[in-house]
């Protein structure tokens, strides 16, 4: 390690956003230590050091923070798409596991020399009552209270936001908090229940022939905005470089689409005509969109990449995953 290099820890470095963040930090000249239960699934990590460990265990954090670090990025959490978060079957694990990870970090960070801590919160903290209209959801940062998230995942994220800010006030920890709005892109979960809407739609369309039918949960009129991974990383970097703005602040796109529109956009990218079969399934709130006035004001920046550009990159990657999986399954069947 060069003594002039900035140093960073990325917790959750085996996950989608975390693995991309490690690459970005390395490109920016950092010495990076990653930590997670697993290595990245779809690409080899470029971290200088990678610790396989369970961050619910304080001893693992003790091993990770064995020296001073300029920055710690805390992205580790028990999470997934709507099929994981909104069924209710995983609520206890989501709250218990994620809260433990954050408690362990904050307890130890008081003792260790950590320059600045980034915490990845979520748009899921916003009240359900402000997101019942698909056309006019309200997600300005100040609307988080009175609190009423639509999932236990959202409640845990909101609690942890307050915990980070409390440690900032009482112990002087330098923290930054961002509320992510549906981050997507290549190298993310694309099947198995933890895939989010863009990846799930891309997979479904990649798996069918022109003119075939795909299933969509609900009537497809529910709205969301989706942010490509590169712009998410830009936002994280801007927030971490700000001298005194802690957040919480939204990092998300203001380009809102319905799930039906998302499917149509992906089908057009794929060059296929599709039919939609609407079925029952976990949905979350009726409408959600990022509100970017605060990030524009404090960081003089906001995401601007059109959704279609990110979907084109993502679809090409998922199309290849589908093709490779079919070839592998065919070889295994023959053998």
Mean pLDDT: 94
Task: Report the biggest beta sheet as strand number plus sense, adding barrel if it closes.
Answer: 7 strands, parallel
Strands side by side in the biggest sheet: 3-2-1-4-5-6-11
CATH class descriptor name of the domain at 7-184 and 229-251 = Alpha Beta
Order of helices and strands: EHEEHEHHEHEEHEEEHEEHEHH
- Helical amount: 25-40%
| Gross morphology | globular
Distance between the termini: 47 Å
- Could you tell me the CATH topology label of the domain at 7-184 and 229-251: Rossmann fold
Strand content: 15-25%
Counting helices, strands and paired strands, the structural category is alpha/beta
Question: What does this 3D model show about the protein?
Answer:
- Keywords: NAD.
- This is NAD-dependent dehydratase.
- It holds the Pfam family Epimerase.
- InterPro entries: Epimerase_deHydtase (IPR001509), NAD(P)-bd_dom_sf (IPR036291).
- It comes from Candidatus Colwellbacteria bacterium CG10_big_fil_rev_8_21_14_0_10_42_22.
- Helix content is about 40%, strand content about 20%.
- With about 325 residues, the chain is an alpha/beta fold.
- The chain has a domain at about 5-185 and about 230-250: NAD(P)-binding Rossmann-like Domain (Rossmann fold, 3-Layer(aba) Sandwich), CATH 3.40.50.
- The protein starts with 6 loop residues before the first strand and ends with a helix.
- It has helices at about 15-25, 60-65, 80-85, 90-110, 150-170, 195-205, 230-240, 260-270, 295-300, 305-335, and strands spanning about 5-10, 30-35, 50, 70-75, 115-120, 175-180, 185, 215, 225, 225-230, 250, 255-260, 275-280.
- The mean pLDDT is about 95.
- The strands form 4 sheets. Strands 3-2-1-4-5-6-11 form a 7-stranded parallel beta sheet, sandwiched between helices.
- Strand 1, helix 1 (about 15-25) and strand 2 (about 30-35) form a beta-alpha-beta unit.
- Helix 8 packs across helix 10 (about 305-335).
